[in-house]
Specification:
This protein is an alpha/beta fold. The protein contains 25 helices and five strands. The chain has a five-stranded mixed β-sheet.
Length: about 575
Amino acid sequence: MCTTNGDNANLSPDSQIASSASSCRKAAIILAALFFLLHLPGLPSLSHWRGDERFYTDAAVRMAISGDWLTPAYPDGSLRFKKPILPYWAVLAGFKLFGFNYFASRLAFLLSGALSIWLSYELCMALTRLPRESLVATAVMASNLTLHNTSIRSTPDALLCTFVLLSSLGFAKLLSGENRPVWYGLAYLGSAFAVATKGMSGLLPIAYTFLFAGLSRHPGKRIRNLLHPLFILLALLIATAWYAWAFSEYGAAAATDFFGDQLGERFSGSKFYLIENAIVYLGSFIIQLLPWSAIAVWAFVIKRHAVIRAMCANLRWLRFVVGWVLFLFLIFTCGNIQRTRYFLPAYPFLGLLYALPLLEGAVGHKSAWVPAAAIKLAYAIAGMGAIALGVFGHQIAPGLAIAGIILAACASVLMLVSTGLEPAIQITAAAAYIVLLLAVDLFLITPNFTFSTAPDITKRLIAEAKQPLVLPMAGMDVGEASQIRVLSAGKIDPYIVADNECDAAIEAHGRVVCTETVLKKWQPTGATVEHCATGSTRWKLRDYLALWRAPDRHAFFVSKRLPYYLVTQIDAH
């Protein structure tokens, strides 16, 4: 763990920094590894599936079948050039290595999330040379819900964050005067791969660093010191190669699709969204980083003079950090699509801003005991909640009981051992517990309440899919269709039909999968009906309250499941 001042008493100042940096770096690496390993078991879960995943998984399935790895397309064959090629390749690589499943499709993104945690520490250290503050910023990043959500899904944001942080790390080293080739490589190649991941967002680290250097009066921070012809040329080739091919192969159609998504569609409509965006994004800098932001605000209030002095002593890097956050704020506020996840690459910087009051508030004041006490109280509340979950879950589903045991045991251990830890390690341990909580929810809690019909339907029909099997689905959504496409390796081609189109669909394809509601309305004739899958209802707060009050909780729990049916035309064979 990070060494204390007492441990370093006999060392020179440089040796103290090196010793503390080494131990804090180990803690950051352990935190990143825990994030990766704890999320692995729940990675295949479909309970956390979100709509945008289908754009990348559907296209990757099509790429794998066709052998065309350059042309992303929708299931109907229409081309999709809204986003560049790298996220599709990340999904496709998983399919090639581990088969067609959601563990494979999401693995690269989880790895990116874990790497972003480690890179957060390295970036903060490059900027500040303050190991404890850098570790706290890393803990803030690791325990962030947005990082969790983007790391468990096949969408580009986690990849983009990794490459932007790589680029920012390279530029931070260059601005500090370390002009080694490796830093030029990270600066420009990181940005190049970011462009290949999500387009123009990948240029932001270069744009901001050049702007910062251009406004700086420091002779060592000149734009000419940031230039490296070889890496700039290589970055241009990586960033533009696929775009050049796509635009030359498909012309205006590809260019219109891409630039419309990147620019044209982002600034249309009434400009009142500017005010809403500004309010939401400013609020997200607090809300998205709870509980650390709340504790930091409290610490600033009680020790504002000490915190202000610490900030004044660190203006060298604070200017860069605050400038990056404001730079992203101004750019994304101007867009008409509101997505707080766009600020994910700013969270290590915001973590640094919160680290100063968090650490200042933990020492040298009559209320310095409050942050540690607040963390212990959080462990106590989490432990009691976990015990209740274990007892409650024992009556419903084994997974809930196991989750309660794991969370209660870890909360108890951390509450006992946290007393002797220094503030930076206490915060890191608490962040690790939040990571555990999110991972246990992913693997053991939410899948009991929200689950997909896709595995059951795929298992029922895959043996019949000797050739691509077209499967009409009524009363269902495109998400379930996409999941079946992935789990069947493209052997089943589902599509959604309206309730009144079931007769035509079964006439054309011999079978329809539908909900019980559709079946009762349709009342098919000349067909067999069999139960083929079980789905979940959308649980609301009143449903959880009713579950708690139910005399037979297991029976109530099971009653919330929905049957799905396979209707097969009798003369289909």
